[in-house]
């Protein structure tokens, strides 16, 4: 398995500074901010997509860490630390989501605090389970930012709001696979949060298409976690590319004509 520390030494950093979206106070941010997070732990994705300037940070989970070759090695977790420090120091992100691991409340609290130890911009993701909610309560009391993740039901949005979690993340692909209308479920969760006057943000995650983002945006959802594939889908629009290519051809023709005219004038 590829070690992330070696990857970090070989990486090519983005050629230009990354625009950093600063957060205001929490109440104002909830009302005004649009936040998109890149759902990837792969440095190649970070290099290609974070310089776009549309991302507030990075969202990871155990599967994404595994795919990127990031090992979680006791007792000092060098690979995890390298990943977090690179996100914060090299890419200047506002937040990076790291999911706590463990089967008990105490284990989840301990590993959540370990992730937070590497930087305060870490948001600890917690599953919406009995143990996860207990652990989230303790971490919130300790001042940690928390995202209740792997949400699949509207009632879980109520619990995330009652916990005063910073984020509640419904899993769009998982809801779809269960046979439910994932977009409708997420919209209902957003309505629950808004109706309760909660400052918890619905973060739609594991999205399957850019169209889902558009539909959720219409309903007032302002926070999204998108894979590299969906991020490219967001940016790429064939008609825009076609028009841009046509304009570029015209521009190059004008430049060529100008050079030709200038050369003739010198004869």
Question: Quick recap of the structure?
Answer:
The protein is α/β, with parallel strands linked by helices. It has helices at residues 4-10, 26-32, 43-49, 62-67, 78-90, 105-118, 130-141, 154-163, 172-177, 182-195, 210-218, 228-235, 238-265, and strands at 35-39, 55-59, 95-99, 122-127, 145-151, 167-170, 201-204, 223-226.
Can you walk through the features of this model?
There is one protein chain. Helix content is 53%, strand content 15%. It contains 13 helices and eight strands. It has an eight-stranded parallel β-barrel with strand order 1-2-3-4-5-6-7-8, surrounded by seven helices.
List the helices and strands and how they pair.
Layout: H1 4-10, H2 26-32, E1 35-39, H3 43-49, E2 55-59, H4 62-67, H5 78-90, E3 95-99, H6 105-118, E4 122-127, H7 130-141, E5 145-151, H8 154-163, E6 167-170, H9 172-177, H10 182-195, E7 201-204, H11 210-218, E8 223-226, H12 228-235, H13 238-265
Parallel strand pairs: 1-2, 1-8, 2-3, 3-4, 4-5, 5-6, 6-7, 7-8
Helix pairs in contact: 6-7, 8-10
